[in-house]
Design goal:
14% strand; six-stranded parallel β-sheet; alpha/beta
């Protein structure tokens, strides 16, 4: 965790209080200096996991950058009286980093999703960002790290998008960052499906109004159980504020 960046504490999980442009500038600087680190993008579910699981909290708090990916985290920060300046969606942060990779002539590895999806994502991204170098891809259906780590290391990729789902991807990044040879690993969940055209984000009006979760619920009513975690999460935050509960964000 980079302590030089301003941060807030949400249920023991440190979230960097940065804008999208500040987050990109920080990652660009790390790339140009050859510094290593992994990036996490906590939403309400991930922060709640960190609240109840010390090992998960330690992994989240060990990240070089942790951005508020979700309206639940943004609103919880306000409940605690430590508002963040804006939501920084992981899917956007990862894609916005690609022009910097082109400018620095560095390459990307994509890890995750079903067989064939990472390949389609790579094709779409290289068409959208001319000059982008894809060092390699691998699906998320591997059993042993040794099945993928040598390929990532030998590819020479500077950045790896790790899309294995939470908390698997966060633990995987911390464990394998050094061995991968990458400067940066970004844990961005289902983003590869979006880049591949397998899934779609909510329309901009829903995103702007903080209702992306509601759009997902309309598209997939079966997600109602998961969506109920958002109001529960905010109620927990309100309870902490009322009782004056203090959370430590030390690893």
């Amino acid at each position: 965790m980079d302590n030089s960046l301003p941060a807030v504490n949400i249920m023991g999980v440190r979230i960097h209080n940065v804008t999208m442009q500040e987050a990109l500038a920080h990652l660009s600087g790390m790339l140009s200096r050859g510094e290593r680190g992994y990036v996490v993008t906590p939403n309400a579910e991930i922060v709640y996991l960190g609240r109840r699981d010390e090992a998960a909290r330690e992994v989240l708090n060990g990240a070089a950058l942790s951005v508020p990916d979700g309206i639940g985290v943004v609103r919880a920060a306000s409940v605690y009286g430590t508002p963040v300046r804006e939501k920084v969606a992981g899917v956007e942060l990862a894609e916005n980093l690609l022009p910097e990779l082109v400018a620095q002539e560095k390459s990307l590895y994509i890890l995750g999703a079903k067989p064939g999806v990472a390949e389609r994502a790579a094709k779409n991204l290289t068409q959208k960002y001319p000059g982008l170098k894809i060092a390699g891809v691998h699906d998320g259906y591997f059993k042993e790290d040794a099945e993928v780590l040598p390929g990532i290391r030998e590819s020479g990729a500077a950045v790896c998008f790790v899309c294995l789902g939470c908390p698997k991807q966060e633990f995987w990044m911390r464990k394998n960052l050094e061995a991968s040879g990458c400067c940066l690993m970004l844990g961005v969940g289902g983003s590869v499906d979006i880049y591949a055209g397998e899934a779609q984000r909510a329309p901009k009006i829903f995103i702007r109004l903080g209702l992306e979760w509601f759009y997902r619920l309309l598209r997939q009513p079966s997600r109602i159980g998961r969506m109920m975690s958002l109001p529960k999460f905010l109620l927990l935050a309100m309870g902490d504020r009322i009782t004056g509960k203090k959370w430590s964000d030390e690893k």
